Amino acid sequence: MTEIQNSIETDALVIGGGIAGLQAAIDLANMGLRVTVIERQPSIGGKMIGLSKVFPTLDCCSCICTPRMAEAKHHPNITTMTYAEVQHVHRDDSGFLVEVLKKPRYVDEDKCTGCRLCEYACTTEVPHEFEGGLGARKAIYIPFANAVPQVALLDLDNCLLCGRCAKACPTGAIDFLQDPKTIVFRAGAIIVATGYEMLPHNFKENYGAGPLRNVLTALQVERLLAPHGPYGRVLRPSDGRVPQSIGYVQCVGSRDLSRGVAYCSRVCCMYAIKQAMLLSGALPLAEITIYYMDIRAFGKGYEQFYQNAKAMGIQFVKAKVAKIREDEEENPVVRIELLDEDGRVEERQHDMVVLSLGLVPGWNPREAGLGAPSEDGFLRCGHVLSSPTQTAEEGVFVAGCAGGPKDIPDSVVQAGAAALEAAAYLRARGWASAARDGHHRKAALISGD
Length: 449
Ligand SMILES: Cc1cc2nc3c(=O)[nH]c(=O)nc-3n(C[C@H](O)[C@H](O)[C@H](O)COP(=O)(O)OP(=O)(O)OC[C@H]3O[C@@H](n4cnc5c(N)ncnc54)[C@H](O)[C@@H]3O)c2cc1C
What we know:
Elements: E1 3-15, H1 19-30, E2 35-38, E3 53-54, E4 59-60, H2 61-74, E5 78-81, E6 84-92, E7 95-102, H3 117-121, E8 125-127, E9 136-138, E10 140-141, E11 153-154, H4 164-168, E12 181-192, E13 196-198, E14 215-217, H5 218-225, E15 245-252, H6 268-282, E16 287-292, H7 302-311, E17 315-326, E18 332-338, E19 344-349, E20 352-357, E21 359-361, E22 381-383, E23 387-391, E24 396-398, H8 408-428, H9 439-447
Parallel strand pairs: 1-2, 1-12, 2-5, 12-24, 14-20, 15-16, 15-20, 16-17
Antiparallel strand pairs: 3-4, 6-7, 7-12, 8-9, 10-11, 13-21, 17-18, 18-19, 22-23
Helix pairs in contact: 1-2, 1-8, 5-6, 6-7
Flavin-adenine dinucleotide (FAD) binds next to helix 1, strand 6, strand 13, helix 5 and helix 6.
C-alpha cells in the first residue's frame, strides 16, 4: 500500500543525479538556493561513475565524478534522495507539486552504516547490473565501491529470505516489511537531468549481441577497462582468454533510418577511439580495428585525439557491417562492405567485437505529465538559440543528455546554464526566500541518505 506523507518545500527540484543533475544542483546550492535531487538508482553518479577513463584527457573517471557526488551529498543546501522516481508533476499558482515514489531498499537508511557484513553473509549471487552483467553481486549489496550513499539494498526478487543478512547486521537495519512511500515536494523550478540509456544490446538482430557472448556493448567494455572492474583486467567473457583482436562497430542504431533513428549519438566515435587507445595500452599485442562510416571528432582537442589513435596503430576501416556471426570457437566474425573499395564484401574474424550502440532518452517527461518530448524523444527546448536550457514548459529547465546526446564537458556546461536560468526564474518570481524554512529538517526526515 502506498502511503502519502506531507509535502516538503524546496527551491528547485532536480530530476536525475548524473553528472549534469549534480552539477546543476551544486551550482544552485552555491547561489544559496535549496535543492532536492531525485535519483532513481540506489546511488547518484549516473553513467559517468561507471566509465573507466574519459576522453579527451584520459583522466580517471571516478577521480572526477566521486568528489562531485560527495560534494552534492554533503552540501548543506542539497538533499539527495536515491532509489526514488518522479511519478507526477502538477502545476499550481505558486509552482510545482511533484509526487515522488521512494522505493523500498528493505534496509533502514538511517541505521545502515555501509559495513557490508550483510553482503558477506549472503550466499546468493546474481549478475551485477553495474558491471553490465559481467560480474556477480549478492542479493543484498552496496551498489558499487564508491556508491553515494553507502547504504545496502536488498533485491527481494532474488532473496531466499534465509535471514542471514538480518543476523549479521550489527545495527538491525534490515527491514523486510518496508513499503514504498509517496512523498510530495513543492518546488519553484524543476531541472530535468534524466540523461540517456543505450539502445538494447540486441537492437540489431543480425549483430548477434546477447546470444553471442563475445559481442559486447561499449558500456560493458568501460567496466572491463575500469581498474576495479569485474575481472580486474581485460578478458573475453566466454572463456576468460586475453583478446588479441578486437573489432568496433560504429553507428549501431544511430543514423540508421532502417530502424527509425535518424540522429547521430555524438559520443560514440570518441568513446570508441578512447576505448581503443586504452585497450592497446592494456593489451599491447592486440590488433584493434574500428569499422566506421565517418569519424565525427568535433570537440576541442578531439581531432588530435583521433590522430593520436591512428599514430598508435589503431586501424580505421571505412565499412558497413552487415552481419556478425560466430565460428565454432565462439569468435565473432563480421561481414563487412568496404566503402573505400567499391563495396567489396569480406569477412573478418575477431576475438571480441564491441557495439557502439546509440543513445536514447533516459525518461519520457510525458509519463509525469511534463509535456511531450521532441520527435527524437529527448526534451524539447523552448528557444534553442536564446534560452537553450528553458523547455517548452515555463519553470522547467533541461541539463545534459536529457535534451539530446552530449559528452561530459557539454553536459556540465549546460547544467551550469540551467542552474543560472532556473535561479533567475525563481528570483524573478520572488520565490527563493519563501521555501527556505524547515526544508532540511523535513528532508532529512524522509531521506536518510
Ligand atoms: C560507452 C560510453 C562511454 C562514454 N565515455 C565518455 C567519455 O570518455 N567522455 C565524455 O565526455 N563522455 C563520455 N560518454 C558520455 C557520458 O556518459 C555523458 O555525457 C554523461 O553521462 C551525461 O550525463 P547526464 O547526467 O546527462 O546523464 P546520465 O549519466 O545518464 O545521468 C542521468 C541520471 O538520471 C537518472 N534518472 C533517469 N530518469 C529518472 C527519473 N525518472 N527519476 C529519477 N532519476 C532518473 C538516471 O538513473 C541517471 O542516474 C560516454 C558514453 C558512453 C555510452
